[in-house]
Write a structure and sequence with these properties.
The chain is built from three helices and 13 strands. It is α+β, with helices and mostly antiparallel strands. It has a single domain, classed as Nucleoside Triphosphate Pyrophosphohydrolase, CATH 3.90.79. The longest helix is centred in the middle third of the chain and has 13 residues. It is globular.
Length: about 150
């Protein structure tokens, strides 16, 4: 079975508020209507139709580098996983200051989709995003539920 790995990277902002890095994924496949989904950076261990022999952490490191141009300097903590009909989805969290490199600042194409410039959203505003993917929302709720465990 294939897997999916995503990174919830966070930072503290004004007044101690926590912000989460997101990006919009717009389907550009001409066979399907354009669908916009807001998501955490990440992806699967399938590359050009071929399953890669990667651990979920290796997939995460590769996807983070490809999607937001950053390198995980320290291994992040897996905090949530869920299985669906296609994958086992692994969600990791790490403070933004633990990543190295320069955050992507342009729109890029990723196979049959277009990824927006990554942007920060205050954690307590995320429930207002109607385009947030279902399992990404579930992972964020888990992160919020155990906030002190993951942010100290």
């Amino acid at each position: 079975m294939t897997h999916f790995s995503a990174l919830l990277t966070w930072r503290r902002g004004e007044y101690g508020n926590i912000y989460v890095l997101l990006q919009d994924n717009k389907n550009t496949d001409i066979l399907f209507p354009a669908k916009l989904e807001t998501k955490l950076p990440g992806g699967t261990n399938v590359k050009n139709g071929v399953i890669q022999e990667e651990t979920p952490l290796e997939t995460l490191k590769r996807e983070v580098k490809e999607e937001i141009w950053l390198t995980l300097a320290v291994d992040p903590k897996e905090f949530f996983s869920v299985r669906d009909s296609k994958h086992i989805k692994h969600f990791f969290c790490q403070e933004f200051s633990s990543l190295s490199g320069y955050l992507r600042d342009e729109v890029v194409s990723d196979e049959s989709s277009e990824l927006s410039v990554p942007y920060w959203v205050r954690l307590d505003f995320l429930n207002r995003l109607s385009t947030l993917g279902h399992d990404h929302r579930r992972a964020i709720v888990e992160f919020q539920r155990n906030l002190t465990k993951y942010t100290t």
